[in-house]
């Protein structure tokens, strides 16, 4: 990262079907076969923040997720190991990485987008909020392209420095919508996300999480699981 003026972190564990049906709710089992949130959203993002600080990067922006104020959010249940105490917790680990950045001394911007849409950008009015106030709205989604535009502009306009906010959009207007990114955050009147809300695992919990995941991964797998 030497010589970089800014860093945008967009890494995230990705939930996928893991096979079978959850007997409790009748839905497909979901998990993180390519990397648990603890490794990707906490350790991975922490490593990027540390590297940015060491390299003298001036500004770090994170694309995170809405829903972080609700410890019981459905997304946190995906990837839980048997017993329900370890694994998963994706929004918990994202929020821990966010708080780590806030406390790092680096200039930061943290964006919590709603549900991501694979649709053209610049066709919707963008709406900002804090602390998941947008969750109650009928419009809780936003095109990926619009999120990318906000992240890029957060590195340009000074009003985004040391800000943490939610981001959604109104329905597709059917035509191009011009956004003044320099004033996008004005409706917040300087308010930021409140990190006393939600759940942020402490270091002891993080160490226990890591050990549990490593132990589970090290367990031999039976060739005939139906006989167990």
From TrEMBL:
Source species: Polarella glacialis (Dinoflagellate)
All residue ranges annotated as the NAD(P)-binding domain in the record: 26-158
Any single Pfam family the record assigns to this protein: NAD_binding_10
Domain of life of the native organism: Eukaryota
GO molecular function term, any single one: oxidoreductase activity
Protein name per Swiss-Prot or TrEMBL: NAD(P)-binding domain-containing protein
């Amino acid at each position: 990262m030497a010589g970089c003026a800014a860093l945008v972190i967009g890494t995230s564990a990705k939930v996928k079907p893991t096979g079978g049906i959850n007997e409790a709710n009748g839905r497909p089992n979901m998990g993180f076969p390519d990397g648990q949130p603890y490794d990707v959203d906490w350790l991975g993002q922490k490593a990027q923040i540390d590297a940015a600080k060491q390299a003298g990067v001036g500004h770090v922006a994170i694309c995170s997720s809405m829903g972080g104020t609700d410890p019981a959010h459905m997304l946190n249940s995906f990837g839980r190991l048997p017993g329900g105490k370890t694994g998963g917790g994706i929004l918990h680990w994202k929020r821990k990485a966010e708080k780590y950045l806030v406390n790092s001394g680096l200039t930061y911007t943290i964006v919590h987008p709603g549900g991501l849409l694979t649709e053209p950008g610049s066709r919707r009015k963008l709406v900002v909020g804090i602390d998941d106030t947008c969750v109650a709205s009928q419009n809780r989604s936003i095109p990926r392209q619009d999120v990318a535009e906000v992240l890029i502009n957060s590195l340009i306009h000074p009003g985004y420095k040391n800000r943490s906010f939610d981001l959604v959009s109104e329905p597709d207007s059917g035509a191009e919508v011009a956004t003044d990114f320099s004033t996008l955050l004005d409706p917040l009147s300087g308010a930021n996300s409140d990190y006393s809300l939600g759940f942020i695992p402490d270091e002891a919990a993080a160490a226990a999480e890591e050990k549990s995941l490593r132990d589970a991964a090290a367990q031999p797998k039976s060739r005939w699981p139906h006989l167990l």
